[in-house]
Write a structure and sequence with these properties.
Length: 427
């Protein structure tokens, strides 16, 4: 039975049998019992599917991963311990020492560091391009050893919107997949696979969990990328894996299953960045209301953005829902029903004004977090980027007076009243 996204949020991924638990069971077990060694041997050879050790797979996680895969319109999914692990696994599953990645430059700071510093140490190089670079610049970023293109639907914290179709077309011209981190938009507002993305990742820590309770990540495969058609580029998927008795993932599991099976069998086995079943259970509670919460986050974000844009002490506002925003046209295409609750704005009074403003807030808390039910905010110049001089901040595109505001699920009038009274304290 084909059902709508809202129904998948509530019931996807798990269908109990007669007399079984209505809610997803938390399988709090590291290991699983078999009658014979031969039964278990088949699992180790990937000849049968089943569970043997929670470092690789656990039923609770798989129910929740199946729900996220269904929401994104993919063929297979897996959970990871964090969003960082999800992006690392998605890239490292197809790129190895000597390879190269093309990435949007406006991505989450942790992911930028992962690609630019840590993966560089592993011998994987990257070229960063602005999300609104010219076609020529995008084309010039590719090399013969490029293995993937990476970007974020709505970037954290830059709030740029990725032209997914354009980036997918460029990736496919070069025979490589587009990986899109869809954390901020969530599948409620955008399904990157429908626009040509091949792999979708998430920090489920944000809106999917939505209650600031559990760190986690997810990877979804569209099942549309033909690894065999580009066999020479992706030997890990298209040639035998000696650590699994010579299995060739793309042959054995096809386009729909090869990527996630390899990622589980090799990377989860070797790195062990599994999400705990307890956290997967919390994540699922969040997913059950994702379709109800996201429109409210976006509505509150829009109202806050409109208020801020009309305030004399605010010099600029970034929110793709605003008609004047640089990314509004892309948002109309990719995010027609809303974007997210995160708004960034610059106070005319700079760093001092931002500090005064934030210290005066009563409902909105100062936190290193976004996409929570409770509104929060951060001034990068006085916190995460505190060590930088004003000149260094300018080079990084961060104005000293920039505030990143994450609108939660409170009453919009209350949030605006809080913002308004805090702005009054600013000179
Ligand atoms: C937070 C975030 C990440 C990292 O996720 P963690 O769960 O904190 O590891 C990756 N991408 C985006 C867009 C994020 O907002």
């Amino acid at each position: 039975m084909s059902v709508k996204k809202d129904t998948v949020c509530v019931q996807g991924g798990y269908t109990p049998g007669n007399g079984e638990p209505r809610q997803i069971p938390i399988v709090q077990s590291t290991t699983f019992k078999y009658d014979t060694g031969a039964d278990m041997g088949k699992l180790f050879d990937l000849e049968a599917s089943g569970y043997f050790y929670t470092r690789l797979q656990n039923p609770t996680n798989d129910y929740v991963a199946a729900k996220i895969a269904q929401l994104e319109g993919g063929t297979a999914g897996m959970l990871t311990s964090s969003g960082q692990a999800a992006n690392f696994f998605a890239l490292f599953n197809i790129a190895q020492c000597g390879d190269h990645i093309v990435s949007s430059s406006t991505i989450y700071g942790g992911t930028f560091n992962l690609i630019a510093v840590t993966m560089a140490k592993m011998g994987i190089e990257a070229t960063f391009v602005e999300p609104d670079c010219s076609d020529e610049e995008l084309e010039a970023a590719f090399r013969p050893n490029t293995k993937a293109v990476f970007g974020e639907t709505i970037a954290n914290p830059a709030l740029t919107v990725l032209d997914i179709e354009r980036f997918a077309a460029a990736a496919h011209r070069h025979g490589v997949p587009l990986i899109v981190d869809n954390t901020f938009a969530t599948p409620v507002f955008c399904r990157p696979i429908e626009w040509g993305a091949d792999i979708v990742t998430h920090s489920t820590t944000k809106y999917m969990d939505g209650h600031g309770s559990a760190v986690g990540g997810a990877i979804v495969d569209s099942g549309r990328f033909d690894w065999m058609a580009h066999a020479d580029k992706f030997p890990g998927l298209t040639t035998p894996d000696e650590s699994y008795h010579g299995i060739t993932y793309a042959e054995r599991f096809g386009m729909g299953g090869a990527f996630i099976t390899k990622c589980t069998a090799q990377l989860m086995r070797d790195f062990g960045s599994i999400q705990s079943p307890q956290n997967a259970f919390y994540l699922n509670l969040g997913l059950e209301s994702l379709h109800v919460r996201m429109p409210r986050h976006a509505e509150n974000g829009m109202k806050a953005a409109e208020f801020l844009a009309s305030h004399p002490k605010v010099t600029s506002v970034s929110y793709c829902g605003l008609p004047g925003d640089k990314y509004h046209a892309l948002a109309e295409k990719y995010l027609p029903d809303g974007s997210c609750g995160v708004v960034s704005f610059v106070l005319a009074g700079g760093r001092a004004a931002a500090e005064t403003f934030m210290n005066a807030l009563r409902l909105i808390a100062i936190e290193t977090h976004v996409a929570d039910a409770r509104s929060c905010c951060l001034n990068p110049a006085s916190t995460t980027h505190r060590q930088m001089t004003d000149e260094q901040l300018a080079a990084a595109g961060i104005s000293p007076g920039l505030v990143r505001l994450s609108c939660g699920l409170e009453d919009a009038g209350d949030l605006i009243a809080d913002i308004a009274q805090a702005l009054e304290k600013v000179d």
